Amino acid sequence: QVQLVESGGGLVQAGGSLRLSCAASGITVSIYVMGWYRQAPGKQRELVAGISQYGSTNYADSVKGRFTISRDNAKNMVYLQMNSLKREDTAVYYCNAHFGTTYWGQGTQVTVSS
C-alpha cells in the first residue's frame, strides 16, 4: 500500500519560512518523479516544484528563488523548503509521486499571515 504523508505545515508570518516533509512508504522515491502541488481556496491545484529521478528540479515562476525541493533517498523522503513566504502562498500543499501511476498525499495546510 502506497502512502505519502505530508507534515510541516502551519501558520507563519509573511517573510517567514517553513519546511514541508513528505514521508513515502510503498514506493521508492528515488525512481519516481516527486513533486509538491498546492491548492488555494477557489483555485485549481498547481505544480509548485518537482524533482526528477536524476535530481533535476523545476519550479513555478511564483516560487523560484524562494522555494527549494530536495529528496533524501536514504530516508525515502522529499522536502520543500519555503522561504520568504507571502500571503499568496497560503494553500493546502500536496506531495505527489509519479512513475506510470500517480499517488497523492492528504495535504498539509500552509497559512501565511500579513
List the helices and strands and how they pair.
Blueprint: E1 3-7, E2 10-13, E3 18-25, E4 33-39, E5 46-51, E6 57-59, E7 67-72, E8 77-82, E9 91-99, E10 101-104, E11 108-113
Give the terminus-to-terminus CA distance. Answer: 40 Å
SSE arrangement, N to C? EEEEEEEEEEE
Our count of helices gives: 0
| Total strands | 11
Helix content: under 10%
Instruction: Report the β-strand fraction as a percent range.
Output: over 45%
**Sheet with the most strands?**
7 strands, mixed
Enumerate the spans where pLDDT stays under 50 for 5 or more consecutive residues: none
Average pLDDT, to the nearest integer? Answer: 97
Computed over alpha carbons, the radius of gyration is: 13 Å
Outline of the structure:
This protein has 114 residues and is an all-beta fold. It has no helices and 11 strands.
Report on this model:
With 114 residues, the protein is mainly beta. The chain has strands at residues 3-7, 10-13, 18-25, 33-39, 46-51, 57-59, 67-72, 77-82, 91-99, 101-104, 108-113. The chain is built from no helices and eleven strands. The strands form two sheets. Strands 2, 4, 5, 6, 9, 10 and 11 form a seven-stranded mixed beta sheet that branches. A four-stranded antiparallel beta sheet has the order 1-3-8-7, with no helix packed on it. The radius of gyration is 13 Å and the shape is globular.
